[in-house]
From TrEMBL:
InterPro entries: Nitroreductase, Nitroreductase-like. It holds the Pfam family Nitroreductase. It comes from the Bacteria. Belongs to the nitroreductase family. Its cofactor is FMN. It comes from Pseudomonas alkylphenolica. Residues 22-214 form the Nitroreductase domain. Keywords: Flavoprotein, FMN, Oxidoreductase. The keyword Glycoprotein does not apply. GO terms for molecular function: oxidoreductase activity. CDD domains: PnbA_NfnB-like. Gene3D superfamilies: NADH Oxidase (3.40.109.10). This is Nitroreductase. SUPFAM superfamilies: FMN-dependent nitroreductase-like (SSF55469).
Length: 239
């Protein structure tokens, strides 16, 4: 794609298409088994590579998992995750979430959690079902494609900002092709196992995982739509 090419449609149509792709991106937690063509996966990554990046560092590396490789990794993680003693030996490579939650972030976290469990009919005291639902992360919510993103450990925090823009580009490009995604920090805990299974070099650190595929339109969990604060709540205009 020519980065200096004119828009493919009127400015209004382009604006609507971009806005639609961003606002309809949601975390989908149930996927159809419909395969995603490799050409589409490559096209999504081909677009995302143009994400903003400080001094053109391009700190991203993507591991694309399908078929038996994805299934084998899912089985390996699930075996450990279902064994509390084994799971306790694993920890995230970096602090994605705060060590101490405070308002309003704690309330937002709780709201989305109880909304999801409410849709699924899982009581807040039903630990086994909560664990089983969380464990679906490690099957990529049955999506046909699993993505795992790594970064060179020597890079600084600024490169993680670049990475966030890259991840958003992946998700928006997926929406433009009628696909859905679910970014997943849950894989971080088992980064050493993932590295072992996929032969990831020690100097690479796991950033997150992501499910990619076609959303199951009849799964109740996919009706979850989280709210967002209005612009007036987070923007300060200085005239």
């Amino acid at each position: 794609m020519n980065r200096l090419s004119p828009p493919p449609a009127s400015a209004q149509l382009v604006s609507h298409a971009v806005d639609w792709a961003i606002t309809t991106r949601r975390s989908i937690r149930a996927f159809l088994p419909t395969p995603v063509a490799q050409e589409d996966i490559e096209a999504i990554l081909d677009v995302a590579r143009f994400s903003a990046t400080g001094v053109n560092m391009q700190p991203w590396h993507v591991h694309v998992l399908t078929g038996e490789v994805k299934a084998r990794l899912s089985r390996a993680i699930t075996r450990i995750d279902n064994d509390p003693a084994s799971a306790a030996n694993h920890a995230d490579p970096y602090a994605y979430y705060p060590h101490q939650w405070k308002a309003p972030y704690l309330e937002r976290r709780r709201a989305v959690g109880w909304a999801l469990y409410g849709l699924l009919g899982i009581d807040k005291n039903d630990r086994p079902r909560m664990h089983a639902q969380h464990g679906r992360n490690y099957r990529f919510f049955d999506a046909p494609v699993g993505l795992l993103f790594t970064i060179d450990r020597s890079l600084g925090e600024g490169s993680l900002l670049d990475y966030g823009m890259f991840l958003q580009s992946v998700m928006v490009a997926a929406r433009g092709r009628g696909l859905h995604t679910c970014p997943q920090a849950s894989f971080l805990k088992y980064h050493t196992l993932i590295a072992e299974q996929l032969g990831i070099a020690p100097e690479q650190m796991l950033v997150c995982g992501m499910s990619l595929g076609y959303a199951d339109p009849v799964s109740i969990e996919n009706t979850l739509v989280t709210g967002r604060e209005p612009v007036s709540a987070f923007a300060t205009f200085h005239p």
